[in-house]
Amino acid sequence: MGDIRALIWLRWRQFKDTAIYWFRVLGYQPNERAFSQNLYVVYLLLIFAFWIYTVGGFVLTSAVTIGAYILPSDVSNLLVLGSQAIFLAQVWVIMTALRSTPIKLSFADMAWVASSPIRRSAPVIVGFARQSLIRIFLLGIAFTLIAALISFTFVGAEYGAIVARAVLVVIPLVVFTWGVGWAIGLLRLIDPRIGRLRYLWFLPLLFVPLAHYFPDPFLWMGRGIVLVIVGSAPVGFVPLLVGLAVGVSIIVLVIGERVNMIHAADESMLYARIQALGLMAWRNPDIQRRIFMQMRQAGRKPFLHLPETQGTMTFITRAGLSYLRHPDLLLMTALWGAALTYFAVEIVVNNAPLQIWILWLVAVGLVPPAGLLHVFQSDRGEMFLRQFLPVDGLQLLIADILLPLIVLIIGAAVGVVVRGLEPELLMTALMIVPIGALLVALSGAVALTTTRVLQTRLLATGGSFGAAILAGVGLGTPLAGLAVALVAAMILAGIVAGEA
Amino acid sequence: MAEESPLLVVSGVGYRYGSFNALTDVSFEANPGELIALVGRNGAGKSTLLKSIAGWTRPTDGEVLIMGKKVAREERLIRQYVVLVPDTPPFYDELTSWEHLQFNAQANRKQDWEEHAEELLEKYGLLNNRDAFPFAFSRGMRYKLALCMGLLIEPKILLLDEPLGPLDPVSADNLWRELNGHRDDGMTILLSSHQLPPDAHPDRYIILEEGTAIAEGTPDELRDRFGITGSITLDELLRAAIRERQDELEEETDG
Q1: pLDDT digit string (tens) for A119-141?
Q2: Is the dihedral of CA A248, A209, A329, B96 positive or negative?
Q3: Closest alpha carbon within chain B to A318
Q4: What pLDDT score was predicted for residue B34?
Q5: Domain ranges for chain A
Q6: In angstroms, rounded to a whole number, what is the distance separating the alpha carbons of residues B243 and B63?
Q7: What does the alpha-carbon distance between residue B38 and residue A116 come to, in Å, rounded to a whole number?
Q8: What is the mean pLDDT of residues A50-57?
Q9: Testing the interface with A: which of B93, B110, B149, B154 to mutate, by most A Cβ within 10 A?
């Protein structure tokens, strides 16, 4: 018990340190024990409580009001989908557990917790409880909203009971589901041979087709949860679910005592590296992505080889090789192109107001395609590497983005085609796609030449796309927009050539 | 006969970060086949000086000339003559050690580079790791690979920032031997360091303190100037130069 108490104290201190950081961001100085500071924290808490109350109330009422417009047949479809979603989430939890350790150790934990003679079940219990609480909180919010959405069909405007049942049933569901995940994940930490079965984590996917043909054994829990929410669960379901949750928790406890912390530490390396970044991991997701990619790459043999080429072709083939070794970057780029173009066409077809265009532009500037400038960013960002590249910024950019740019254009074209347009409009849209993709690349590249990357990218994206959209909409011809876009591309290209 | 112009001229170089002077009026010249040690405490301005010479950053005052060409103006041209290896060199995540060398050689249109690359990897003990990804290397191995990348393109000037820090004593000795060989082949080497192997004898020392070059000269000249007997050590040299500087400043203040 002492071990668990010590660990809970450690986690509480860590939580407190993080909370103090955020309080400091808000202007509260916890070390100053002044009356004004105490008053300020009361003020902050009141504001927070008021915000939760008003926004929460508004969201709940809105969900109930929206729910009143949903047809009962759609609600029943939604509930069927809900039971299937619960099953799929359970499959996903088991897959995740088979891929990496449920016990996540930071570097400090590896040094002081894993290497201490602490009872092995202590970090397991504390970790499991912590993860379950977070899941209960998050899923509780989601279940509350869903319950409010469907409440009108069953009980009219009185949504209190249905929401309460939804929130309560989340607790045993989460404990059972993640308990099963932890138990399976911990088995890997006891017997490393399970971890060496590289593709074992795909196995739970087999449940999906099985559930299609034999739904009862797989979907009963999801169905039961849905029935609990709507208030018509069979007698005994809730006690059974609670019993299962308690039983699985005991199994986790028993298995947890036999965990080998060396395996846990080995498998925690990725988590520890990201955790060591602290807030940087959130402020700069690129670093997180890079760590993920490095860890994945580390376990693989080099795939393909750099072809024998000279000069500029070397840059192109090198960039190609980098992308082929990380095909997910290309896939993400293509999906990004398809999604953003789909929405752009939707905006044009529906003649949406200017505010929607601005929203679309902000999305393009804020969340650019992650893979598009991956290689250029390495070349440009590290002077040690840049010094070996005897080409100007624009040549380098063209060579580095050639492959992902083609992929982006293809993805964007697919987006247009999937959305569907009349033949003559379709041709115009397909003509705009390559120049739009080029503008996205150039705006991102220009941003990388400055220290204020986000601001510059927003400005370059907004300026170039904005001018083209205004010209196209204002003059009533897409060709005017195209011409302005070309001019913008040339200006951005000039900046990249000189600065990168 | 007209006197040959120096390969590297650093003339009145200054560098300011906001109101902080990282470098103030640093001037010196370097000729082909010279090995110069830049010595100074942490924050003395050694790395900033090396970056200014390599064209990684533009000095706020003065200028750097390489083969008579201004670095700030002909930054791209001089890249083929100068290589700077920083203390923590970065690498491409997707390329193996060998592919880094291959990419470097091909991008710089080097012919028949394979044998040279293999020799370098062999010399620096990386041959067994040629197909490994450098992000998984130790700091010393990373530095050695960066050196191989730099040496593969045969620069006229090699700038090394703290090259001996990450290396084990045996590797440090080997590196020094290799650097002597490159110096004998006519390469100019400028390195910053806090430590040198016992048998290491640079041709010249430049001592930086708070961004200013407070002493410069051959080992003999500095030995005479600071009254050092026996072989010179960096530690001794640095302490003597700083002491002299403090004495000068005190005299100025008293005066």
Answers
A1: 888 889 999 999 999 999 999 99
A2: positive
A3: B103
A4: 94
A5: 70-267, 312-499
A6: 29
A7: 46
A8: 91
A9: B93
